[in-house]
Structures are given as structure tokens and as C-alpha cells.
Amino acid sequence: MAALWFVLLTLLHTAMPATPDIVHLEALKAFKDSITGDPLGVLARWTSSHHHCSWPGISCNPSDNSVISIDLPSRGLNGTISPFLGNISTLRYLDLSSNSFRGTLPSQLGNLKEVSWLDLGENLLGGTIPSSICNCTSLTYLSLSINRVTGS
Ligand SMILES: *[C@@H]1O[C@H](CO)[C@@H](O)[C@H](O)[C@H]1NC(C)=O
Ligand SMILES: *[C@@H]1O[C@H](CO)[C@@H](O)[C@H](O)[C@H]1NC(C)=O
Ligand SMILES: *[C@@H]1O[C@H](CO)[C@@H](O)[C@H](O)[C@H]1NC(C)=O
């Protein structure tokens, strides 16, 4: 059994392309840049000395290193939500709930065609729900509770 796992892991490893996905990397950097407060230092390891797939809160598809999950609830993060997140077309799971995100929801989040879980609840977001969110055709869970967001 252990030998089988070794073979599988080796196969997965050799299937990984050497070059990181630049678009996803740039999007994550822009996301970090739009965060002004990180009291727990969660994003301190989001640096070029680690591949972005190993950054805290990030999960990638091991077969192609595309980012599939950003999971950062209750981290005390203060800032705005970067529209660059909409460039991570493979994102399936986004949980930024219970932080101090301010500003409005970027309409670019509507570009996330694969996203099925979107939790931005318990933040300080305002404005309206962009109609483009309705374009997230895979969406099965959306929470914007305890914000000041209004819909139409
Ligand atoms: C978030 O950052 C803004 C601007 O840097 C600051 O005015 C505000 O007090 C911060 N809020 C929290 C909850 O830390
Ligand atoms: C990503 O998104 C931003 C803002 O939505 C945009 O300005 C940028 O050109 C996009 N493309 C890439 C490849 O970063
Ligand atoms: C939804 O996506 C389609 C095709 O990608 C686009 O033409 C349309 O403008 C989008 N709708 C919204 C509300 O963003």
C-alpha cells in the first residue's frame, strides 16, 4: 500500500509543470496588496521564497498548480477585496468570512465560473451585489450575511 502511494505521488509530482501560473500568482499578489491589516501575520509567508500553492490558505490542483481554493476565514484581515481575484478562473472555494474587508464587491468576481462556495459573510462590505455574480453558474453557496450589501 505504501509503495502504491509512493508511485502515485511520484506520478503526480512529475506531472506538475515547472512554471508557476503567472496569472494566479499576480492575482494573489494583488489580493495581498489590497490588505492593509494582518494582525496574525497570516500573509507573512506569501512571498516569492515559497510557491504560491504552499501559501497559508491557498490550495491548488496538484495536476496543474491552478489555484482552486482560498480559505482565510476569521484571520482579522483588514482591507478591500481585489478585483484581480476574478482572474483565478479555476477557483472553486472562496471563504473570507469573519474578517474586516471593507469597500464593495468587485464585479470581476462574476468571472469565477467554477466557484461553488463563496462566503464573504461577517465583513464590513457595502454597496450592491454585482449582477455579474449571477454569472457564477456553479455557485451553490453564497453568504454575505452581516454586511451592508444590498441586492437587486
Ligand atoms: C482597517 O484599516 C483602516 C485603514 O487602514 C483603519 O482605519 C481601520 O481602523 C482598520 N479597521 C480594523 C478593524 O482594524
Ligand atoms: C486581472 O484583473 C485585473 C483587474 O480586474 C486586470 O486589470 C488585469 O489586466 C487582469 N489580467 C491579468 C493577466 O492579470
Ligand atoms: C455574463 O456572461 C456573459 C458571457 O460571458 C456576458 O456576455 C454577460 O455580460 C455577463 N453578465 C453579467 C451580468 O456580467
Describe it:
The protein is of the alpha/beta class and 152 residues long. The protein has one domain: Ribonuclease Inhibitor (Leucine-rich repeat, LRR (right-handed beta-alpha superhelix), Alpha-Beta Horseshoe). Helices cover 17% and strands 18% of the residues. It has two helices and eight strands. A five-stranded mixed beta sheet has the order 2-3-5-7-8, with no helix packed on it. It has a three-stranded mixed beta sheet with strand order 1-4-6. A hairpin with a 4-residue loop joins strand 2 and strand 3. The longest helix has 14 residues, at 2-15. Residues 23, 26, 83-84, 86-87, 108 line the site of one 2-acetamido-2-deoxy-beta-D-glucopyranose (NAG).
The sequence of SSEs as H and E is HHEEEEEEEE
Structural class category:
alpha/beta
Looking at this structure, what is the CATH superfamily?
Answer: Ribonuclease Inhibitor
Strand content: 15-25%
Total DSSP E strands: 8
User: What do we call the CATH topology?
Assistant: Leucine-rich repeat, LRR (right-handed beta-alpha superhelix)
Q: Describe the main β-sheet briefly.
A: 5 strands, mixed
Radius of gyration: 16 Å
| Separation, N- and C-terminal Cα atoms | 54 Å
**Which ligands, by name, code or SMILES, are bound?**
2-acetamido-2-deoxy-beta-D-glucopyranose
Task: State the shape.
Answer: globular
InterPro entries: DNA_repair-toleration (IPR053211), Leu-rich_rpt (IPR001611), LRR_dom_sf (IPR032675), LRR_N_plant-typ (IPR013210)
Keywords: Leucine-rich repeat, Membrane, Repeat, Signal
Domain Leucine-rich repeat-containing N-terminal plant-type: 26-61
Subcellular location: Membrane
